Amino acid sequence: MAIDYGSRSRPHVLPLPLRAPVEGRMWREFGYLLLSLPISVALFAYAVAMTAVGTGLLVTFLGIPVLAASLAGCRAFGMLERARARALLGLDVAEPAPVRGKKSGLLSWVGAILKSGVSWRHLLYAVLHLPWATFAFVVSVTFWCVSWSLFLYPLYQWVYPAHWGQPGMGINTDGNGFYVDTPFEIAVTSVLGFLLVLVSPWLIRGLTGMDRLMVLGLLGPSLLASRVSELESDRGVVVDTAAADLRRIERDLHDGAQARLVALAMDLGLAKEKLAEDPQAAAVMVDEAHGEVKTALQELRDLARGIHPAVLTDRGLDAALSAIASRCTVPVTVDVDLPARPAAAIEGIAYFTVSELLQNVSKHSRARRATVDVWQTEGRLMLQVTDDGVGGADAAAGSGLAGLTERLDAVDGVLVVDSPAGGPTTVTAELPWRG
After folding, report:
1. CA gap 113, 98 in Å, rounded
2. pLDDT at site 413
3. What are the φ/ψ torsions at residue 364 (nearest 5 degrees)?
4. Stretch 61-84: mean pLDDT, rounded?
5. Are residues 58 and 92 in the same domain?
6. Domain extent at residue 250
7. pLDDT tens-place string over residues 55-68
8. Residues contacting 412, CB < 8 A, separation 6+
9. Cβ–Cβ contacts within 10 Å for residue 129, how many?
C-alpha cells in the first residue's frame, strides 16, 4: 500500500454523521434507488415478454432469433445500468467483451449471443432486480419521508389546527391514540425524526450495496474473462520489461565494454607499429592495454551479474542477497529463512527486487542501517526491506518502485510500501513460491 504524504483534503466543519444526510453521495444513492424501480419494471417486462415469446416459438425457427433479440436487449439495458452505477454510485464496472461470431453474418451472431454466458447473466439480472428494486424503493422512500416529516414537524404543526380541525398529528386516533400537540411532544417528535434522518444515509448505503453486488456480479465481465484480460496485460508488461532489459544490455555493451575493446584494439595496433622502432614505448602501450583488458573484463562481469548472477544459480538467495548487501553503502543485515529454493524465475525476480530496493536505500534514504528478511508462508515467498532513513517513498509517484510493482504484478506478486515522512521505510514484496 503506497502512502502519499503530499496534498491533504480540506477538513470538514461538521463530523461525518451530521453531514452525511445532506452530502451529495447520499442524494446520488437515493436517486439511484428511485430510478431503479421504473427502470427495473421496464427491463423485467421486456425480458420476460421477449423470453416467453421466444421460448414459445422454439417449435419454429423464429424462436431462436427472438431469444437472441431478448438477450441483446438485456445487454443494451446492461449498458444503461453500468452507466447509471458509474454516475450515481461511483462504481466503475468494466464492459464485457462484445459478441462476435466465428463468421460474419446474422446466423453466426445469433449463435454467439446464445452461447454467451454474459448475455444470460444480463437476463438473470433483469429477472432478479425487479423484486429487489421494489423492496429498496419502498423502504428508502418510506424511511426518508417519515424521518424528514418527523424532524420538520415543528415547522408545519400549525397546519393541523389551522386547516384540518385537529390539534396536531394524530397517533392511532381511532383507538387509544393521541395527538402530538404539546411543546414537549413536538420536541420529542422532532428529535426522533432527527435521529432517523441521521440513520437514513447508512440505510440507503446498505441498500445500494446490494445493487453494487448485483451489477458487479451479473453485468460485468466474467471472472475468466477478467483473468484472461489481466494475464494479457501482465504479458505485455513482461514483454516491455524484457525489451527494456535488452535495450539496457545493448547500451551497456555499446557504451562500455565494446567501446573499451575498440580502444584497446587501436592501442595494440599502435603498439605493434612501434614495436620495431621503439620497443620501450611499445611496452608501455602494451602495459596500458593490459590495464584496459582488466577493466573491460570487470565491466563484462558486472554486466553478466546484472543479467543473472552466477552466485544466485549456484548457491541460492541467501548467498546472492548477502553479496548485494556487501555492496550497499549502508550496513545491511540479511536474514533468509527458506525451507527450499523457489522456482528459478521467482528466485531471479526476488533477487532483482531486493537489489533495486537496496539501490534506493543507497541513493535516496540517507539511512544508517537496513535489514533484508526473506521467508516463506502459505505458498508465498515474502521479502521485506527496512531502513531507518527519511521516508517519503511512494510507489505511485512513477519512480522505480512503480516499475517494481508492475514487474511483481506480472507474476501475481504484490509490492506494499509503508514510508511515512521521517521514516522508517518498510517495503514488503510477496511472490508466488512455485518451487
Report:
1. 9
2. 82
3. -120, -20
4. 90
5. yes
6. 230-307
7. 888 888 888 889 98
8. 432
9. 27
- Cell match 393521541: residue? 178
Q: Give the Cα separation of 101 and 121 in Å (integer).
A: 19
Per the structure, how many domains does the chain have? Answer: 3
Strand partners, 334: 372
pLDDT tens profile 418-429 = 888 887 888 888
**375 and 344: one domain?**
yes
Mean pLDDT of 245-274: 68
Residue 209's CB: how many other CB atoms inside 10 A? 12
Helix axes 183-214, 24-56, angle to 10 degrees: 50
Mark whether 319 and 369 lie in a shared domain: yes
The verdict on residue 32 lying in a domain is yes
Q: What is the pLDDT of residue 207?
A: 94
Average pLDDT, the chain: 80
How would you class 82 by CB atoms within 10 Å of its CB: exposed for 0-12, middle for 13-18, buried for 19 or more?
buried
Give the angle subtended at the CA of 118 by the CAs of 115 and 121, to the nearest 5°.
Answer: 110
Report phi then psi at 103, rounded to 5: -125, 165
Q: Name the residue with cell 532483482.
A: 352
Q: How far is CA 373 from the centre of its chain?
A: 26
Residue 56 one-letter amino acid = G
106 and 38 housed in the same domain: yes
Q: Higher confidence at residue 175 or residue 47?
A: 47
pLDDT the model gives residue 5: 31
Residues 283 and 136 reside in one and the same domain = no
Give the span between the Cα atoms of 377 and 140, in whole angstroms. Answer: 46
So what's the pLDDT on residue 217? Answer: 87
pTM score over 0.90: no
Q: 256 and 390: one domain?
A: no
Q: Are residues 22 and 138 in the same domain?
A: yes
The answer to whether position 2 is within a domain reads: no
Taking the C-alpha atoms of residue 217 and residue 207, their distance in angstroms, rounded to an integer, is 16
